[in-house]
Amino acid sequence: MPAMTIIAYELTMLGAIIATVLGILFESRIPNPFAGIYDERITEGYIGITIVCDEDKIESLENIFKTNGAEDIIIEK
After folding, report:
1. Which of 19, 69, 75, 77 lies 20 to 30 Å (CA to CA) from residue 55?
2. Structurally, how many domains does the chain consist of?
3. Does pTM top 0.85 for this prediction?
4. Which domain does 7 fall in, by range?
5. Domain-embedded: residue 56
6. How far apart are CA 16 and CA 36, in angstroms?
């Protein structure tokens, strides 16, 4: 019996460590196959906004951003 408690303890700790690592990866969403394209201007202090919308609303959103001083608008389809 005492020899089995050491093995059970070690396997419990191993399971806890594996579950913790998997939990961190899951909560961090790593790896993220749907990640957007990274723009280096963000690290220079610019603000990036990503919007998902219907194609018929793209023109009105573009006008709103231009009216409010957007420096660059990139539209990806």
Report:
1. 69
2. 1
3. no
4. 2-67
5. yes
6. 33
**Is residue 75 included in any domain, yes or no?**
no
User: For residue 73, is it within any domain?
Assistant: no
Q: DSSP letter for 77, please.
A: -
Please report whether residue 77 resides in a domain: no
Phi-psi map region of 29: left, alpha, beta (phi>0 left; psi -120 to 50 alpha): left
pLDDT in 10s for each residue of the chain, 77 residues? 788 999 999 999 999 999 999 999 988 888 777 776 777 888 899 888 888 888 899 999 999 999 999 988 888 77
